[in-house]
Amino acid sequence: MSDAGFDLTDPATVRDPYPAFTRMRALGRPIWDERLGMWLACRYDDANAVLRDRRLGRIFTPREPGDVWETFNWLHEDALLENEPPKHTRLKQLVAKAFARGHIETRRPRIQELCAQLLDDCETKARDTGTFDVIADYAEPLPVLVIADLLGFPESDVPLLRPWSRAIVKMYEYDRTEDDDRRAEQACREFAAYIDALADERRDRPGDDLITHLAEVEAEGERLTERELAATVVLLLNAGHEATVNGFGNGIVALLARRDQWKRVVDDPWGAADTAVEEMLRFDTPSALFERTAARDVDIAGVTVCEGQKIAALLGAANRDPAVFPNADAFDVGRDPNPHIAFGAGIHFCLGAPLARLEMQQSLPMLAERFAQVALADGAVPRDTFVLRGWETVPVAV
Questions:
Q1: β partners of residue 133
Q2: Of 310, 367, 348, whose CA–CA distance to 92 is shortest?
Protein backbone atom coordinates (compact mmCIF):
# COMPACT_ATOMS: atom_id res chain seq x y z
CA MET A 1 0.00 0.00 0.00
CA SER A 2 1.24 3.49 -0.84
CA ASP A 3 1.11 6.71 1.15
CA ALA A 4 -2.06 7.62 -0.79
CA GLY A 5 -3.82 4.31 -0.20
CA PHE A 6 -3.06 3.17 -3.76
CA ASP A 7 -3.42 -0.58 -4.43
CA LEU A 8 -3.14 -1.62 -8.06
CA THR A 9 -4.36 -5.14 -7.23
CA ASP A 10 -7.72 -3.75 -6.01
CA PRO A 11 -10.34 -4.45 -8.73
CA ALA A 12 -11.93 -1.04 -8.10
CA THR A 13 -8.58 0.68 -8.72
CA VAL A 14 -8.00 -1.36 -11.87
CA ARG A 15 -11.44 -0.35 -13.19
CA ASP A 16 -10.95 3.34 -12.39
CA PRO A 17 -7.52 4.43 -11.10
CA TYR A 18 -8.07 8.13 -11.72
CA PRO A 19 -9.42 9.12 -8.26
CA ALA A 20 -6.34 7.49 -6.72
CA PHE A 21 -4.12 9.29 -9.22
CA THR A 22 -5.65 12.62 -8.16
CA ARG A 23 -4.85 11.89 -4.50
CA MET A 24 -1.31 10.83 -5.37
CA ARG A 25 -0.57 13.93 -7.44
CA ALA A 26 -1.84 16.11 -4.59
CA LEU A 27 1.01 14.88 -2.37
CA GLY A 28 3.35 16.90 -4.58
CA ARG A 29 6.15 14.35 -4.81
CA PRO A 30 6.80 10.74 -5.79
CA ILE A 31 5.38 8.32 -3.24
CA TRP A 32 6.75 5.06 -1.88
CA ASP A 33 4.69 1.91 -2.42
CA GLU A 34 5.66 -0.70 0.13
CA ARG A 35 3.94 -3.61 -1.61
CA LEU A 36 5.58 -2.91 -4.98
CA GLY A 37 8.89 -1.91 -3.38
CA MET A 38 9.27 1.13 -5.61
CA TRP A 39 8.64 4.84 -5.90
CA LEU A 40 5.71 6.07 -8.00
CA ALA A 41 5.96 9.34 -9.95
CA CYS A 42 2.47 10.64 -10.63
CA ARG A 43 2.80 14.29 -11.63
CA TYR A 44 3.60 15.07 -15.25
CA ASP A 45 6.94 16.76 -14.61
CA ASP A 46 8.06 13.99 -12.24
CA ALA A 47 7.06 11.16 -14.59
CA ASN A 48 8.70 12.94 -17.51
CA ALA A 49 11.90 13.32 -15.50
CA VAL A 50 11.88 9.60 -14.67
CA LEU A 51 11.62 8.76 -18.37
CA ARG A 52 14.38 11.15 -19.42
CA ASP A 53 16.95 10.98 -16.62
CA ARG A 54 19.85 8.85 -17.89
CA ARG A 55 20.79 7.90 -14.33
CA LEU A 56 17.57 5.87 -14.31
CA GLY A 57 17.65 2.90 -16.62
CA ARG A 58 15.96 -0.28 -17.72
CA ILE A 59 17.83 -2.98 -15.82
CA PHE A 60 16.32 -6.39 -16.51
CA THR A 61 16.52 -8.88 -13.67
CA PRO A 62 16.42 -12.45 -15.02
CA ARG A 63 13.97 -14.83 -13.46
CA GLU A 64 15.23 -17.96 -11.71
CA PRO A 65 18.13 -19.50 -13.62
CA GLY A 66 17.52 -22.82 -15.29
CA ASP A 67 15.93 -24.25 -18.40
CA VAL A 68 12.36 -23.26 -17.49
CA TRP A 69 12.95 -19.52 -17.87
CA GLU A 70 15.85 -19.60 -20.34
CA THR A 71 13.91 -18.34 -23.37
CA PHE A 72 11.95 -15.73 -21.42
CA ASN A 73 15.19 -14.37 -19.98
CA TRP A 74 17.08 -13.99 -23.23
CA LEU A 75 14.08 -12.59 -25.09
CA HIS A 76 14.21 -9.73 -22.59
CA GLU A 77 17.99 -9.49 -22.15
CA ASP A 78 18.38 -9.01 -25.92
CA ALA A 79 15.40 -6.69 -26.38
CA LEU A 80 15.72 -2.99 -27.17
CA LEU A 81 13.31 -2.02 -24.40
CA GLU A 82 15.31 -3.72 -21.63
CA ASN A 83 18.72 -2.27 -22.42
CA GLU A 84 20.65 0.94 -21.91
CA PRO A 85 23.59 2.36 -23.91
CA PRO A 86 25.82 1.15 -25.36
CA LYS A 87 23.79 -1.99 -26.23
CA HIS A 88 20.58 0.00 -26.58
CA THR A 89 22.31 2.43 -28.97
CA ARG A 90 23.58 -0.42 -31.14
CA LEU A 91 20.21 -2.24 -31.25
CA LYS A 92 18.24 0.93 -31.93
CA GLN A 93 20.57 1.94 -34.75
CA LEU A 94 20.08 -1.43 -36.45
CA VAL A 95 16.31 -1.59 -35.94
CA ALA A 96 15.81 2.03 -36.98
CA LYS A 97 17.83 1.40 -40.14
CA ALA A 98 15.55 -1.51 -41.05
CA PHE A 99 12.47 0.63 -40.33
CA ALA A 100 13.89 3.47 -42.44
CA ARG A 101 13.19 1.53 -45.64
CA GLY A 102 9.71 3.07 -45.78
CA HIS A 103 7.96 0.43 -43.72
CA ILE A 104 5.51 2.74 -41.96
CA GLU A 105 4.06 5.38 -44.30
CA THR A 106 3.89 2.94 -47.21
CA ARG A 107 1.45 0.86 -45.13
CA ARG A 108 -1.26 3.55 -45.20
CA PRO A 109 -3.18 2.09 -48.22
CA ARG A 110 -2.89 -1.43 -46.76
CA ILE A 111 -4.18 -0.23 -43.38
CA GLN A 112 -7.16 1.41 -45.07
CA GLU A 113 -7.82 -1.80 -47.01
CA LEU A 114 -7.75 -3.88 -43.82
CA CYS A 115 -10.02 -1.39 -42.03
CA ALA A 116 -12.54 -1.61 -44.87
CA GLN A 117 -12.51 -5.41 -44.80
CA LEU A 118 -13.04 -5.52 -41.04
CA LEU A 119 -15.81 -2.93 -41.23
CA ASP A 120 -17.51 -5.01 -43.94
CA ASP A 121 -17.53 -7.92 -41.49
CA CYS A 122 -18.87 -5.63 -38.74
CA GLU A 123 -21.63 -4.51 -41.09
CA THR A 124 -22.59 -8.12 -41.78
CA LYS A 125 -22.78 -8.89 -38.07
CA ALA A 126 -24.77 -5.72 -37.42
CA ARG A 127 -27.34 -6.68 -40.06
CA ASP A 128 -27.89 -10.02 -38.32
CA THR A 129 -27.85 -8.91 -34.68
CA GLY A 130 -27.89 -5.12 -34.57
CA THR A 131 -24.53 -5.14 -32.79
CA PHE A 132 -20.85 -5.94 -33.20
CA ASP A 133 -17.86 -5.92 -30.85
CA VAL A 134 -15.67 -2.90 -31.54
CA ILE A 135 -12.74 -4.65 -29.79
CA ALA A 136 -12.94 -8.25 -31.02
CA ASP A 137 -14.20 -7.37 -34.50
CA TYR A 138 -12.18 -4.21 -35.21
CA ALA A 139 -9.66 -2.79 -32.73
CA GLU A 140 -8.02 -6.11 -31.89
CA PRO A 141 -7.59 -7.78 -35.30
CA LEU A 142 -6.44 -4.64 -37.14
CA PRO A 143 -3.02 -4.06 -35.51
CA VAL A 144 -2.28 -7.80 -35.48
CA LEU A 145 -2.96 -7.96 -39.21
CA VAL A 146 -0.90 -4.80 -39.82
CA ILE A 147 2.15 -5.92 -37.83
CA ALA A 148 1.95 -9.41 -39.35
CA ASP A 149 1.89 -7.85 -42.82
CA LEU A 150 4.79 -5.56 -41.89
CA LEU A 151 6.90 -8.41 -40.56
CA GLY A 152 5.97 -10.81 -43.35
CA PHE A 153 4.14 -13.48 -41.36
CA PRO A 154 2.14 -15.86 -43.55
CA GLU A 155 -1.56 -15.00 -43.31
CA SER A 156 -2.37 -18.53 -42.18
CA ASP A 157 -0.17 -18.05 -39.08
CA VAL A 158 -1.70 -14.75 -37.93
CA PRO A 159 -4.06 -16.48 -35.41
CA LEU A 160 -0.97 -17.69 -33.50
CA LEU A 161 0.29 -14.19 -32.74
CA ARG A 162 -2.28 -12.62 -30.44
CA PRO A 163 -2.39 -15.55 -27.94
CA TRP A 164 1.42 -15.60 -27.73
CA SER A 165 1.49 -11.85 -27.15
CA ARG A 166 -1.28 -11.85 -24.54
CA ALA A 167 0.49 -14.58 -22.57
CA ILE A 168 3.87 -12.80 -22.63
CA VAL A 169 2.64 -9.31 -21.71
CA LYS A 170 0.77 -10.72 -18.71
CA MET A 171 4.23 -10.96 -17.14
CA TYR A 172 4.29 -7.16 -16.82
CA GLU A 173 1.42 -7.23 -14.32
CA TYR A 174 1.86 -7.41 -10.55
CA ASP A 175 -0.91 -9.90 -9.73
CA ARG A 176 0.23 -12.85 -11.84
CA THR A 177 -0.52 -16.47 -11.00
CA GLU A 178 1.66 -19.54 -11.47
CA ASP A 179 -0.50 -20.44 -14.47
CA ASP A 180 0.20 -17.02 -15.98
CA ASP A 181 3.94 -17.62 -15.54
CA ARG A 182 3.76 -21.06 -17.13
CA ARG A 183 1.76 -19.83 -20.13
CA ALA A 184 4.19 -16.94 -20.65
CA GLU A 185 7.28 -19.11 -20.77
CA GLN A 186 5.58 -21.59 -23.11
CA ALA A 187 4.57 -18.71 -25.38
CA CYS A 188 8.15 -17.40 -25.35
CA ARG A 189 9.53 -20.78 -26.40
CA GLU A 190 6.99 -21.27 -29.17
CA PHE A 191 7.22 -17.72 -30.48
CA ALA A 192 11.05 -17.67 -30.49
CA ALA A 193 11.23 -21.02 -32.30
CA TYR A 194 8.73 -19.81 -34.88
CA ILE A 195 10.70 -16.61 -35.55
CA ASP A 196 14.00 -18.50 -35.80
CA ALA A 197 12.53 -20.77 -38.47
CA LEU A 198 10.98 -17.86 -40.36
CA ALA A 199 14.20 -15.80 -40.24
CA ASP A 200 16.18 -18.77 -41.60
CA GLU A 201 13.69 -19.06 -44.44
CA ARG A 202 14.02 -15.34 -45.26
CA ARG A 203 17.81 -15.54 -45.26
CA ASP A 204 17.50 -18.19 -47.98
CA ARG A 205 14.58 -16.53 -49.79
CA PRO A 206 14.52 -12.79 -48.95
CA GLY A 207 11.28 -10.85 -49.25
CA ASP A 208 10.21 -7.22 -48.97
CA ASP A 209 9.32 -7.45 -45.29
CA LEU A 210 10.75 -6.33 -41.97
CA ILE A 211 12.02 -9.76 -40.88
CA THR A 212 14.10 -9.96 -44.07
CA HIS A 213 15.43 -6.45 -43.54
CA LEU A 214 16.23 -7.11 -39.87
CA ALA A 215 18.15 -10.23 -40.93
CA GLU A 216 20.05 -8.27 -43.59
CA VAL A 217 20.58 -4.91 -41.89
CA GLU A 218 24.13 -3.86 -41.04
CA ALA A 219 25.47 -0.69 -39.45
CA GLU A 220 29.15 0.06 -38.81
CA GLY A 221 29.96 -3.60 -39.28
CA GLU A 222 27.35 -4.75 -36.74
CA ARG A 223 24.40 -7.06 -37.37
CA LEU A 224 21.64 -8.44 -35.18
CA THR A 225 22.38 -11.85 -33.69
CA GLU A 226 19.76 -14.58 -34.08
CA ARG A 227 18.57 -13.99 -30.52
CA GLU A 228 18.48 -10.22 -30.95
CA LEU A 229 16.43 -10.60 -34.11
CA ALA A 230 13.93 -12.88 -32.36
CA ALA A 231 13.76 -10.55 -29.33
CA THR A 232 13.19 -7.56 -31.63
CA VAL A 233 10.35 -9.25 -33.50
CA VAL A 234 8.65 -10.35 -30.27
CA LEU A 235 8.93 -6.81 -28.90
CA LEU A 236 7.62 -5.27 -32.12
CA LEU A 237 4.59 -7.53 -32.13
CA ASN A 238 3.81 -7.15 -28.43
CA ALA A 239 4.40 -3.40 -28.21
CA GLY A 240 3.28 -2.74 -31.78
CA HIS A 241 -0.24 -3.96 -31.27
CA GLU A 242 -0.95 -3.82 -27.52
CA ALA A 243 -0.73 -0.03 -27.48
CA THR A 244 -2.97 0.25 -30.55
CA VAL A 245 -5.63 -2.23 -29.40
CA ASN A 246 -5.86 -0.69 -25.94
CA GLY A 247 -5.39 2.90 -27.06
CA PHE A 248 -8.20 2.60 -29.58
CA GLY A 249 -10.43 0.55 -27.29
CA ASN A 250 -10.04 2.83 -24.28
CA GLY A 251 -10.47 5.88 -26.46
CA ILE A 252 -13.55 4.70 -28.32
CA VAL A 253 -15.30 3.83 -25.04
CA ALA A 254 -14.55 7.32 -23.72
CA LEU A 255 -15.58 8.89 -27.02
CA LEU A 256 -18.88 7.03 -27.48
CA ALA A 257 -19.81 7.77 -23.88
CA ARG A 258 -19.67 11.49 -24.76
CA ARG A 259 -22.06 11.94 -27.66
CA ASP A 260 -21.14 15.59 -28.19
CA GLN A 261 -17.52 14.55 -28.77
CA TRP A 262 -18.50 11.65 -31.04
CA LYS A 263 -20.61 14.07 -33.10
CA ARG A 264 -17.55 16.28 -33.60
CA VAL A 265 -15.72 13.29 -35.09
CA VAL A 266 -18.70 12.21 -37.22
CA ASP A 267 -19.12 15.75 -38.58
CA ASP A 268 -15.49 15.90 -39.78
CA PRO A 269 -13.95 12.41 -39.53
CA TRP A 270 -10.65 13.07 -41.26
CA GLY A 271 -10.25 16.62 -40.03
CA ALA A 272 -10.81 15.62 -36.41
CA ALA A 273 -8.78 12.40 -36.52
CA ASP A 274 -5.32 13.65 -35.53
CA THR A 275 -6.29 15.54 -32.39
CA ALA A 276 -8.98 13.00 -31.46
CA VAL A 277 -6.44 10.16 -31.55
CA GLU A 278 -4.03 12.07 -29.32
CA GLU A 279 -6.84 12.70 -26.83
CA MET A 280 -7.79 9.00 -26.89
CA LEU A 281 -4.21 8.16 -25.96
CA ARG A 282 -4.02 10.82 -23.25
CA PHE A 283 -7.38 10.44 -21.58
CA ASP A 284 -7.18 6.73 -20.77
CA THR A 285 -3.55 5.84 -21.43
CA PRO A 286 -3.09 2.21 -22.51
CA SER A 287 0.29 1.69 -20.80
CA ALA A 288 -0.19 2.88 -17.24
CA LEU A 289 3.23 2.28 -15.71
CA PHE A 290 6.86 2.20 -16.85
CA GLU A 291 9.63 1.13 -14.43
CA ARG A 292 13.17 2.46 -14.21
CA THR A 293 16.03 1.52 -11.85
CA ALA A 294 18.54 3.95 -10.35
CA ALA A 295 22.12 3.28 -11.47
CA ARG A 296 23.15 5.68 -8.67
CA ASP A 297 21.34 7.92 -6.20
CA VAL A 298 18.96 10.24 -8.05
CA ASP A 299 16.81 13.12 -6.76
CA ILE A 300 13.34 13.33 -8.30
CA ALA A 301 11.21 16.20 -7.02
CA GLY A 302 12.89 16.16 -3.62
CA VAL A 303 12.80 12.39 -3.17
CA THR A 304 16.05 10.40 -3.26
CA VAL A 305 15.81 7.22 -5.30
CA CYS A 306 18.74 5.21 -3.95
CA GLU A 307 21.04 3.19 -6.18
CA GLY A 308 19.28 -0.08 -7.04
CA GLN A 309 15.80 1.19 -6.14
CA LYS A 310 13.03 1.33 -8.72
CA ILE A 311 10.82 4.24 -9.60
CA ALA A 312 7.89 4.03 -12.00
CA ALA A 313 6.42 6.75 -14.16
CA LEU A 314 2.64 6.45 -13.86
CA LEU A 315 1.79 7.57 -17.37
CA GLY A 316 -1.96 7.56 -16.84
CA ALA A 317 -1.64 9.82 -13.81
CA ALA A 318 0.79 12.16 -15.57
CA ASN A 319 -1.53 12.52 -18.56
CA ARG A 320 -4.34 13.78 -16.30
CA ASP A 321 -2.17 16.35 -14.51
CA PRO A 322 -4.14 19.64 -14.46
CA ALA A 323 -0.86 21.57 -14.21
CA VAL A 324 -0.22 20.61 -17.84
CA PHE A 325 -3.65 19.77 -19.27
CA PRO A 326 -6.42 22.33 -18.59
CA ASN A 327 -9.67 20.63 -17.56
CA ALA A 328 -7.65 17.42 -17.53
CA ASP A 329 -10.52 15.07 -16.63
CA ALA A 330 -12.57 16.22 -19.62
CA PHE A 331 -12.34 14.43 -22.98
CA ASP A 332 -11.85 16.99 -25.77
CA VAL A 333 -11.31 15.69 -29.31
CA GLY A 334 -9.90 19.07 -30.32
CA ARG A 335 -7.39 19.41 -27.46
CA ASP A 336 -4.35 21.25 -28.72
CA PRO A 337 -1.62 21.34 -27.56
CA ASN A 338 -1.62 17.84 -26.13
CA PRO A 339 1.89 16.96 -24.92
CA HIS A 340 0.92 13.58 -23.45
CA ILE A 341 3.54 10.93 -22.72
CA ALA A 342 1.44 7.87 -23.56
CA PHE A 343 4.31 6.54 -25.69
CA GLY A 344 6.96 7.39 -23.10
CA ALA A 345 9.85 9.81 -23.58
CA GLY A 346 13.62 9.82 -23.81
CA ILE A 347 15.65 7.03 -25.36
CA HIS A 348 12.90 4.49 -24.70
CA PHE A 349 10.22 6.44 -26.54
CA CYS A 350 8.06 3.80 -28.22
CA LEU A 351 9.58 2.76 -31.55
CA GLY A 352 6.13 1.68 -32.75
CA ALA A 353 4.45 5.04 -32.00
CA PRO A 354 4.33 6.20 -35.66
CA LEU A 355 2.66 2.94 -36.71
CA ALA A 356 0.19 3.02 -33.80
CA ARG A 357 -0.75 6.60 -34.62
CA LEU A 358 -1.13 5.82 -38.33
CA GLU A 359 -3.45 2.88 -37.59
CA MET A 360 -5.64 4.89 -35.23
CA GLN A 361 -5.71 7.89 -37.59
CA GLN A 362 -7.17 5.61 -40.29
CA SER A 363 -9.37 3.32 -38.22
CA LEU A 364 -11.23 6.06 -36.29
CA PRO A 365 -12.49 8.15 -39.25
CA MET A 366 -13.34 5.04 -41.26
CA LEU A 367 -15.45 3.79 -38.34
CA ALA A 368 -17.14 7.18 -38.04
CA GLU A 369 -17.92 7.31 -41.76
CA ARG A 370 -19.38 3.80 -41.85
CA PHE A 371 -21.19 3.79 -38.48
CA ALA A 372 -22.08 7.38 -37.61
CA GLN A 373 -24.93 6.26 -35.31
CA VAL A 374 -22.95 3.63 -33.40
CA ALA A 375 -23.49 3.65 -29.62
CA LEU A 376 -22.25 1.68 -26.65
CA ALA A 377 -24.37 -1.36 -25.84
CA ASP A 378 -24.65 -3.43 -22.68
CA GLY A 379 -22.08 -6.09 -21.88
CA ALA A 380 -18.71 -4.33 -22.05
CA VAL A 381 -16.02 -6.23 -20.11
CA PRO A 382 -12.76 -4.49 -19.05
CA ARG A 383 -9.46 -6.33 -18.86
CA ASP A 384 -8.45 -7.20 -15.31
CA THR A 385 -4.97 -5.73 -15.82
CA PHE A 386 -3.49 -2.48 -14.55
CA VAL A 387 -0.19 -2.01 -16.40
CA LEU A 388 -1.65 -2.68 -19.85
CA ARG A 389 -5.07 -1.11 -19.50
CA GLY A 390 -7.84 -2.06 -21.91
CA TRP A 391 -11.09 -3.86 -22.67
CA GLU A 392 -11.83 -7.50 -23.43
CA THR A 393 -15.11 -6.78 -25.21
CA VAL A 394 -17.12 -3.67 -26.07
CA PRO A 395 -20.44 -4.39 -27.82
CA VAL A 396 -21.86 -1.49 -29.82
CA ALA A 397 -25.30 -1.04 -31.31
CA VAL A 398 -25.90 0.35 -34.80
A1: 395
A2: 348
**Segment 223-263, tens digit of pLDDT:** 888 889 888 888 888 877 788 899 999 999 999 999 999 99
CATH code for the domain of 268: 1.10.630.10
Q: Are 302 and 295 in contact (CB under 8 A)?
A: no
Residue 86 falls inside a structural domain: yes
Q: Considering the domain boundaries, does residue 174 fall inside one? A: yes
Check: CB of residue 34 under 8 Å from CB of residue 1.
Answer: yes
φ, ψ of residue 99 in degrees (nearest 5): -65, -30
Cα Rg of the chain (Å, integer): 21
pLDDT digits (tens, 9 = 90+) for 322-332: 999 999 999 99
Total domains present in the chain: 1
Nearest to 251 by CA among 181, 311, 340: 340
Residues 45, 39: Cα–Cα separation, whole Å: 15
Confidence band, pLDDT 50/70/90 cuts, at residue 103: low
CA 168 to chain centre: 13
List the domain range (segments joined by +) for residue 20.
11-397
Which SS3 state, helix, strand or coil, does residue 47 take? Answer: helix
Is 2 a domain residue? no
Calculated CA dihedral for residues 322, 327, 328, 331, nearest 10 degrees: -170
Q: What is the DSSP letter of 345?
A: -
Rounded CA gap, 331 and 279, in Å?
7
Q: Nearest 5 degrees, angle CA 333-CA 336-CA 342?
A: 75
- Distance, CA of 247 to CA of 249 (rounded, Å): 6
Q: Let me know if residue 100 belongs to a domain.
A: yes
